[in-house]
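pasting for the record
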Amino acid sequence: MRTAGAPILTSMRGKPGLMEKLGLLLAALLLAALSTCSPHKSALTQIKALGVLKVATINSPTTYYFGAKGALGYDYDLAKGLADQLGVKLEMVVAQNQQEAMQMVEQGSVNMAAAGLAISPARLQHLRFSHPLLTVIPQLVYRMGQPRPTSLADLHGQLTVVSDSVHAERLASLKKQYPNLTWDETASQETEQLLYEVANGQLEYTIANSDIIAINQRYYPRLRVAFNLADSQDQAWAFRRDGDSSLYDAAESYIDRISGKTLERLRDRYFGHVERVNYLGAVTLASQVQTRLPKYRAAFEAAGKKYSIDWHLLAAMGYQESQWDPDAVSPTGVRGLMMLTEDTANFLDVNDRDDPTQSIFGGALYYSQLFAQLPESIKDPDRGWMALAAYNIGLGHLLDARMLTQEVGGNPNHWLDVRNSLPLLTQARWYSRTRHGYARGYETVNYVGNVRNYFDMLTWITNGAPSKAKPELVEPPLQTPQLPKGSENPLHITTPIL
């Protein structure tokens, strides 16, 4: 006899045992399940079912950022076009750097990456890349006034590049050709910050792509290109390398459809006017005072009187924005003498941004509104400089910079303290702590400084003497604030679905 409930471990000769019967039963059940269940859904089918395309990106003026009129960027516009074609919403997931964006794709937490990614042999081992969307040139930059190197053998100083970047990969391959070549890699700084440090003499050299160099040269005219490290470098979208090519195929079809005029117009929007507004010296300004300013001086004076603003300040803003050119158009679509966005113009009831008088009065009204919206604790002249900063970067980003200023022990009511904090908005470990996220703080620092200088020069030229409210022509160097120990809280930012 056997104990009740004990399993039968042996079987009679010639007949299947219990374990064999169970195996046959499981196989039959599995076969039935496979014959009745629906086939595996492709990545594209799942995206359409969920109604969302998740795209990893990075904050960069050439990739994705929030401007005064909302989300902008070359990769953003292209990804939005793909999402629209698929009939789904777009969700941009902001990574701290390109390496993290690519890791998100490999891990499957996003559908693809649109982050200005260069195609390289090392990256092709892990990812699948679309057809090129942009071709750039990797370049070594140095500071004007320093000896210009003609090759990597001529470097006499520190060369720093972003770690895990294609530039670091390129340097490693060039090490065989230049055995004495040395460089540093940084994971805490981004390309824009390295370019700023080169322009201001804090770093001898860095390597960046021609598109981002051209954009930053508008704000840092001391940046100079020494030489190209290659003839060209293709950038593309990245996809997971697996057996499912449905999304990749759809993206390739989309790229093929927009290749030509559509893609050309988009490239022109972001990269075709990078030298449209440049910062000229006093000689050029004096010339423009004689040739262009007389056409618009009456409008500047009338707008200044209406809104209680020194007309010299409005004229300085107009020169900084467009060199008093009513036909100016920026890479991001803002236009006119005072460079108003379409949304701002509509809010201000400016019917024609290209009309110089409407643009001047609209810019004056906008500045006066920003001036009035600042906290009452900010007094003149700091209030005026912060209103200028808000005019350039947006009130929300300025308030974020004031918050960071207070957090690091500065005075959020003093322009110089806030000025030191504005560049932190380009760094993930800082802007992740703010409400409005990434912003081009270095650009705003230069914007305000330039307007102040132009204001002083215009006052001198038109009045024959400096203004009573003469701004400082030379401000102290930027100081980099430090977070209190233990207070760092880097976060991943996921923007709302747009």
